[in-house]
Design a protein that fits this description.
The structure is a homodimer of 422-residue chains. The relative contact order of chain A is 0.08. The first copy, chain A, is of the alpha/beta class. In chain A, helix 1 (20-31) packs parallel to helix 5 (153-169), helix 2 (46-59) packs across helix 3 and helix 9 packs parallel to helix 14 (390-409). In chain A, the strands form 4 sheets. In chain A, strands 2-1-3-8-7-6 form a 6-stranded mixed sheet, sandwiched between helices. A 6-stranded mixed sheet of chain A has the order 14-13-15-16-17-18, sandwiched between helices. The first copy, chain A, contains 14 helices and 18 strands. Helix content of chain A is 38%, strand content 26%.
């Protein structure tokens, strides 16, 4: 079954309000095997809203709309539906009593404006609103099921879980849809795609989508069937194939973050971590501590932005700084070792580089970053050239730094030569 | 002029990714007097995407689409456009050279897949991508201007501000819409609203919108007219009124970040800053260094997550830690002083607290944060209770810490008693 979601409200088109209702509806629908194929947002304009409803019933089996059911003059969803689907609005006395009762229970008289909320398109079922005054509506048109919910998030959510979802689950056409996420780091999107060439032909029943982040590329695998076991089998095989092709670049699944994965590995091995950051200004520490409970393995670190700070707080000697420059493998090495010894940690992790937008040269361009990892076995460094804005260079630095720790802990540190990612 | 925005990507329909591009596009368009009347999201499906483009050119004067310009097989926007608008795809050698050059500058060979990004619908203008490989496209169909931008947020934004907006501004039908943003910190949204009671009646021609962030509440003032001078006069008066009511809680305008404002004040006064962070794990340093050129005034800092690190790197004595606990005004004071002296900075800034979700007690709840500011005049601290998730507590800590520096530099430090914000 395919769905279209229509979110109604001029304020949603200005770009200052994030539309949370859509996300809730989309997640709930995909959970019961209904695939959302269109999302339309339209303002409080009856002609354009009518247009959206007409297009939606034409192309979807399920339409879920939210908004415009309030009592004020700009709430015109009921009227528009009546026009589009040729259903006369009828005053529903039961609904009117419920609305009156809701006001009475708060000790106030129902304002006259609210009476309009009891106008129901003829033949539509009323979805009770346990949290507010606007009732929801459910009716069908040709072969399409149409649900109209209030714009208030908590009211829409209640109707969704208590009415819409059970209704769709019971639908004879209901499909099971499953999804898995495979998170990778260390390869640009096009290189991930190259390793997966041919996947579509090998797994024609599984849809593969790419989602690039500063923390790597996430892959989404989706499969659908009337049989939930078939979905799981398809996804299991497809996931195994992806993991095999991408090897250690895979760091986790849907709920995993690099920070949490590294935290788990450190905790399991009883090891502690300390950081020494230059260009990232504290972002590696911030990423590590984004995981609750990080105080078990993260001791702290030094943000050595100025050269003097690198000398005073990390013991990087002035000669190394002068000879190789602050952005060098040698300084990354000394910083990592300094963090490890000054904080008495098992692992020292460092980053030095040029975040931009200024400060790059032909030899040392913006985005050049050296990472260092100090352990009891010694210190190793890696060199990267990251693309993007200042913020993206820093975000990638933090992700790749965490990945170094992950690879070290998995004993498969890959210290290959230059690597670059956009 | 009326616009439709089309955001492309199956992942946007699953409800797990928030569509930030739409918000950016909507705000930029409304700024140049273009009203967004429809927003459609469609997956990576050529037939449905074609449907969306056909509907959009039919009902809008301007269409801005994002997504599906990448190099992988699920990126089909170029092909779909070619089909819908009957424009053959032609390999653009200049674009191909640019893409190759982008890879070469990072020392790697262009993967063969990226070649598809140089296929341009015949007659379309290429919008240069300064941050990635996918070029944008601009062409017109009948009377509609169509802009197609990459899905990567920073790339779309760059093309929007550097190409689309100037293009639309020059359009003969353009209405003048003006907008000003007033950024505040230190008051929750409802307190800001209370101070602005009556504003709507006093300035009926100016629309006021609230946008709460972890870095405070931003206010947007919008006015429209065919006469640009009228717009500016309306906005100037409204802005003055807002600033008068909110006083020193206002830290800047649209383009300002707290980080940049603090950086400017430090630079002007020739002062240097060092940080000492506990719960924020490096986020204050990351916020300070988000501003280009921050190395002029930011020396560095210490992330003292473990108590031992607070002793070893900042000289916080063990007795103070044991007597008052790590989350206390006393420890915040010693941390700030320690950062100032160890890094030989003019100003030391510290934060210690409980980010949660675990670790709170009745006496010291989750969200309790002490900030410290050490200067040549001595050390002062402030106490806060921040609401929200772990990430939000940390983000608020970083913002309020920067605000302490700002207020100190403006010589109006307000060291009032306990303050709490949700």
């Amino acid at each position: 079954m395919r769905a279209e979601v229509i979110t109604i409200g001029t304020e949603l088109l200005h770009g200052y309000v994030t539309n949370r209702n859509f996300e809730t509806i989309a997640r709930e629908l995909s959970r019961v095997g209904v695939e959302v194929v269109f999302h339309t947002t339209v303002g409080d304009d009856s002609e354009r809203m009518a247009d959206s409803f007409r297009a939606a019933v034409h192309r979807a089996d399920v339409v879920v709309a939210t908004g415009g059911l309030g009592p004020t003059p700009d709430d015109i969803t009921r009227k528009t539906i009546a026009t589009v689907f040729r259903r006369r609005l009828v005053l529903d006395e039961t609904v009117l009593d419920q609305i009156r009762g809701r006001f009475r229970s708060r000790g106030i008289e129902m304002p006259a404006l609210n009476e309009s909320q009891a106008l129901i398109p003829r033949g539509a079922r009323v979805i009770e609103n346990l949290r507010g005054t606007a009732p929801g509506l459910h009716f069908s048109h040709q072969d399409t099921e149409i649900f109209v919910l209030p714009g208030v998030a908590s009211e829409a959510e209640q109707m969704l879980t208590q009415y819409v979802v059970p209704c769709l689950k019971a639908h004879p056409q209901a499909l099971r849809i499953g999804q898995r996420v495979v998170r990778t780091i260390g390869l640009p999107e096009s290189a991930v795609a190259e390793r997966l060439l041919g996947f579509e032909a090998e797994e024609p029943e599984v849809r593969l989508a790419y989602l690039p982040h500063t923390s790597g590329v996430a892959l989404t695998l989706t499969a659908a069937s009337r049989d939930a076991a078939v979905v799981q089998a398809l996804l299991g095989r497809a996931e195994a194939r992806v993991v095999e092709r991408l090897g250690s670049h895979v760091y986790g699944g849907e709920a995993d973050t690099l920070s949490a994965v590294v935290g788990r590995l450190l905790s399991e091995r009883g090891l502690t971590l300390a950081t020494a950051e230059s260009l990232s200004g504290g972002s590696i520490g911030a990423a590590v501590t984004a995981t609750p409970g990080s105080s078990r393995y993260f001791l702290g670190g030094v943000v050595a932005y100025a050269d003097d700070a690198k000398e005073a707080l990390l013991g990087v000697d002035g000669r190394t700084l002068r000879r190789h420059g602050a952005v060098s493998a040698e300084v990354a090495e000394r910083m990592a070792a300094g963090a490890r010894s000054r904080l008495s940690a098992d692992i020292g992790l460092s980053a030095t580089g040029i975040a931009g937008p200024e400060g790059g040269t032909a030899e040392k361009p913006v985005g050049l970053v050296f990472l260092g990892l100090a352990t009891e076995e010694g210190v190793r460094t890696s060199r990267h050239v990251f693309g993007g804005s200042r913020g993206e260079v820093v975000a990638r630095t933090a992700s790749y730094a965490l990945d170094l720790v992950r690879r070290h802990l998995l004993s498969e540190a890959s210290w290959s030569g230059p690597s670059s990612h956009s």
